[in-house]
């Protein structure tokens, strides 16, 4: 029997599956199929699938019954996948241990189960974890054909931003100069280099930069990435006027670095400024900050105002895309 399926290239399969799962659209009665380099991901409602995806009719095999954590617990637990790590966010330690035990007993493939033990903290944006299953917090995450090795205990990383990262990377042109000001382990920088850009990637976290360099080699783009450890305000001076595109993914404080961004920008430069703002005015403060920093030297054009995700009650994680054009 034919059912609606999202058809995507194999390298985009996991990120697409995560997006569809987050929207509650996966059809769990049928298996995901691989045919000639494409994945066919069964969905419960073709009408609710975002327009960006290709929905086709296909006859996938019925899913063999598997034991899930929900089957064992009698209720559906909330968790996040990152490579072979399962991440919980439970305030009750006993509940976290119950979910971890159910994950081990189920058919869900996981080497490690952790529970968030603190909020993101410090300049390096890392958090504490309770290690419930396994002995390592290191994993390999895959999205849109890119492999990223990382250790969640020592670097910041969010798999929830895969779709947003892909949105930005799809805009990058071959031979473009891209400066990633807060690069982490390279989730923007690596695919930007794979798109043909020359990339400078900076981060304060020494461990993150070590992973970024390893990931550049892993993805065969080491010749197109310069990785710099340190405060971008201090270490990027030799790239003044160099950038065609600036990625500023440091919500809460990226606006504090706009003076540096203006210094790095070339005659024409696109800036992706990430921010956390109240729902009443999600883009106004960021745009005002850009104008304060840049309007004396640049004409400013807003290209897109993007709500990336809900961050907290009445607050959004947003991205403001602007083009800076040098004034004559």
Description of the molecule:
This protein is α/β, with parallel strands linked by helices. The model has no long low-confidence stretch (mean pLDDT 93). It has helices spanning 13-22, 69-73, 93-105, 162-169, 189-194, 206-218, 232-235, 258-264, 284-294; strands spanning 3-9, 33-35, 38-42, 54-58, 79-82, 85-88, 112-116, 129-133, 138-143, 146-151, 177-180, 198-203, 225-229, 243-248, 265-278, 298-312, 315-326. The chain is 23% helix and 34% strand. It has 9 helices and 17 strands. The strands form 4 sheets. It has a 7-stranded mixed sheet. It has a 4-stranded antiparallel sheet with strand order 2-3-1-4, with helices on one face.
Summary tags:
328 residues; alpha/beta; seven-stranded mixed β-sheet; four-stranded antiparallel β-sheet; 9 helices; 17 strands; 23% helix
Please estimate the helix content. 10-25%
**Largest β sheet strand count, sense and barrel closure:** 7 strands, mixed
How many alpha or pi helices?
9
Mean pLDDT over all positions: 93
**Sheet with the most strands: spatial strand order:** 13-12-11-14-15-17-16
What is the rounded distance between the termini? 64 Å
Beta-strand portion reads 25-35%
Parts with pLDDT < 50 across at least 5 consecutive residues: none
Question: Which word captures the global form?
Answer: globular
Query: Which structural class should the secondary elements be placed in?
Result: alpha/beta
Oligomer state of the chains in this structure: single chain
User: Would you count the extended β strands for me?
Assistant: 17
Following the backbone from N to C, one meets helices and strands in this order, namely EHEEEHEEHEEEEHEHEHEHEHEHEE
Measured on Cα atoms, how large is the radius of gyration?
Answer: 21 Å
